[in-house]
Amino acid sequence: PAPDAPPQDLAGRHVVVSAGGTREPLDPVRYLGNRSSGRQGHALAQAARRRGARVTLVAANVGLPALEGVETVAVETTEQLRDGVRSAAKDADAVVMAAAVADYRPEASATSKIKKSGDDPLVLRLVQNPDILAELASERLRPGQVIVGFAAETGDDGASVLDHGRAKALRKGADLMVVNAVGEGRGFGTTDNEVTILDRDAEIVATASGSKDTVADAVWDAVLAHL
Ligand code: CTP
Ligand code: CA
């Protein structure tokens, strides 16, 4: 191999990555969604491919060029993302949930375009979506598979980014939680990242900063330590 060829340390492994952000239809032309670009998920899929894995990318509304050698399943809603991830996870060694999943969806999607009604405000009733990560962590669709979540957090008066990340790591039951600070130009839509990787007991196992490719390799290093 070329001197700068990446180690093939994921050869023989099947990994599943979710990317992007889910959208929940309000009517045939409108949706509730988020600003996730899908770049971190893409970087994770590409890094795993480079390191020799078979990769399934479940991509929610990602407007990026297709990745060579990566099986990509395009989805829109949380329900579709859940189906795509779960079916690929049945024989996966690791599942990384990098997608921003809509926490709520409209209770019903109108079959025709919602029209304005006079000057009245519009009230939407939202119901909670299933927590795909928590389900994967508790069910382990394949025994021994490594489950990884991402937590994009902001600090607030009561707690720091890491406090929120720790609480989430403990709550979700995933093997690894990748915590990053967002807001003030960090995280969403940017090319650089600074993350702390926690284990299921919320202990720090690694930190990484730099490009999303650097973060992706740090995540796979941490996954490998669990395989
Ligand atoms: N996630 C998921 N299903 C959901 C919501 C989130 O699988 N319905 C996953 C995300 O893909 C991510 C992790 O859970 O890997 C953390 O997402 P986050 O939105 O930070 O967690 P929530 O439990 O939704 O908490 P919050 O109230 O802070 O949004
Ligand atoms: Ca959420």
Automatic annotation (TrEMBL):
<keyword id="KW-0511">Multifunctional enzyme</keyword>
<keyword id="KW-0285">Flavoprotein</keyword>
<comment type="function">
    <text>Catalyzes two steps in the biosynthesis of coenzyme A. In the first step cysteine is conjugated to 4'-phosphopantothenate to form 4-phosphopantothenoylcysteine, in the latter compound is decarboxylated to form 4'-phosphopantotheine.</text>
</comment>
<keyword id="KW-0288">FMN</keyword>
<keyword id="KW-0436">Ligase</keyword>
<feature type="binding site">
    <location>
        <position position="113"/>
    </location>
    <ligand>
        <name>CTP</name>
    </ligand>
</feature>
<comment type="pathway">
    <text>Cofactor biosynthesis; coenzyme A biosynthesis; CoA from (R)-pantothenate: step 2/5.</text>
</comment>
<comment type="pathway">
    <text>Cofactor biosynthesis; coenzyme A biosynthesis; CoA from (R)-pantothenate: step 3/5.</text>
</comment>
<comment type="similarity">
    <text>In the C-terminal section; belongs to the PPC synthetase family.</text>
</comment>
<keyword id="KW-0479">Metal-binding</keyword>
<feature type="binding site">
    <location>
        <position position="172"/>
    </location>
    <ligand>
        <name>CTP</name>
    </ligand>
</feature>
<feature type="binding site">
    <location>
        <position position="103"/>
    </location>
    <ligand>
        <name>CTP</name>
    </ligand>
</feature>
<comment type="similarity">
    <text>In the N-terminal section; belongs to the HFCD (homo-oligomeric flavin containing Cys decarboxylase) superfamily.</text>
</comment>
<dbReference type="GO" id="GO:0004633">
    <property type="term" value="F:phosphopantothenoylcysteine decarboxylase activity"/>
</dbReference>
<keyword id="KW-0460">Magnesium</keyword>
<feature type="domain" description="DNA/pantothenate metabolism flavoprotein C-terminal">
    <location>
        <begin position="10"/>
        <end position="224"/>
    </location>
</feature>
<feature type="region of interest" description="Phosphopantothenate--cysteine ligase">
    <location>
        <begin position="15"/>
        <end position="227"/>
    </location>
</feature>
<comment type="function">
    <text>Catalyzes two sequential steps in the biosynthesis of coenzyme A. In the first step cysteine is conjugated to 4'-phosphopantothenate to form 4-phosphopantothenoylcysteine. In the second step the latter compound is decarboxylated to form 4'-phosphopantotheine.</text>
</comment>
<feature type="binding site">
    <location>
        <position position="168"/>
    </location>
    <ligand>
        <name>CTP</name>
    </ligand>
</feature>
<dbReference type="GO" id="GO:0004632">
    <property type="term" value="F:phosphopantothenate--cysteine ligase activity"/>
</dbReference>
<protein>
    <recommendedName>
        <fullName>Coenzyme A biosynthesis bifunctional protein CoaBC</fullName>
        <ecNumber>4.1.1.36</ecNumber>
        <ecNumber>6.3.2.5</ecNumber>
    </recommendedName>
</protein>
<keyword id="KW-0456">Lyase</keyword>
<keyword id="KW-0210">Decarboxylase</keyword>
<feature type="binding site">
    <location>
        <begin position="130"/>
        <end position="133"/>
    </location>
    <ligand>
        <name>CTP</name>
    </ligand>
</feature>
<feature type="binding site">
    <location>
        <position position="150"/>
    </location>
    <ligand>
        <name>CTP</name>
    </ligand>
</feature>
